[in-house]
Amino acid sequence: MHCPRYVAVSLIWSLFIWLPGCSGDDGDGGSTPSDTPSDQSPASSQPPDSPDPGTDTPASSTDRDRDGYTADEDCNDNDASVNPGEDELCDLKDNDCDEKIDEGVQSTFFADLDQDGYGDDAASVDACTAPRNYVDEACDCDDNDDEVYEGAEEICDLKDNDCDNATDEDTGLTYYPDADGDGYGIEAGAVTSCQKPEGFTPQAGDCAATDATTYPGAPEACDNLDNDCDGLIAVSYTHLTLPTNREV
């Protein structure tokens, strides 16, 4: 008798658990069923979905932002605008990974306290955009006066409006010394000013600085003086009586 044994474990006669005892034929001369079909290889001990440990990608070799630089080259692998080959932009980032931010791309802005559009050369900052009360134009020689800046119109106000280091140039009136107070002055000692100085007058042409009766347009008197400053002197004549009878 051969070794195979069968044990029934169900009322269904077709279901049996094969308990091999030894190899060989069964009682009818058939082959002994095999635990493993002949056309299948034994199952692998490694699950089929497990990745091969030898093919894992190191973290330093990843390029998360897809900018062409791996994490060990890129100083920010989460931002495609940051890598060693990037041009520096004015965006508060170290775009080119040189450990400097916005170098060489910032603009200079100047404090403009009087809001005239021109800033103080001595108060400047470098930035990407103008801070509050800063402008990109300098050349304000008085940042507390909005009528004073480079290019402003010079007006007669005792200020250097156009920042050219000259005050009231070509704007004031000429005033002439008027010692006798007749409203006309002499050329000598004339000044240019925005306001009339004491003892001066805007009218020139006085030909007698110390005689208040002599000035252009004054009434001409018979006093051997040029009262009206016209260059002519009135002469007084003595009336002579001539004899009516002449000896011939």
Task: Give the topology, please.
Blueprint: E1 5-8, E2 16-19, E3 107-111, E4 124-127, E5 134-135, E6 173-177, E7 191-193, E8 200-201
Antiparallel strand pairs: 1-2, 3-4, 3-5, 6-7, 6-8
How would you portray this structure in words?
This protein is mostly loops and 248 residues long. It has three domains: 33 residues, no CATH class; 78 residues, no CATH class; 77 residues, no CATH class. The protein is 0% helix and 12% strand. It is built from no helices and eight strands. The strands form three sheets. A three-stranded antiparallel sheet has the order 4-3-5, with no helix packed on it. A three-stranded antiparallel sheet has the order 7-6-8, with no helix packed on it.
Q: Which bin fits the share of residues in helices?
A: under 10%
- Percent of residues in β-strands: 5-15%
Side-by-side strand order of the widest sheet: 4-3-5
The total domain count is 3
Mean pLDDT: 81
Can you write the helix and strand succession as a string?
A: EEEEEEEE
Low-confidence stretches: 1-48
Number of helices: 0
For the biggest sheet, the summary is: 3 strands, antiparallel
Please give a quick description of this structure.
This protein is largely without helices or strands. 0% of the residues lie in helices and 12% in strands.
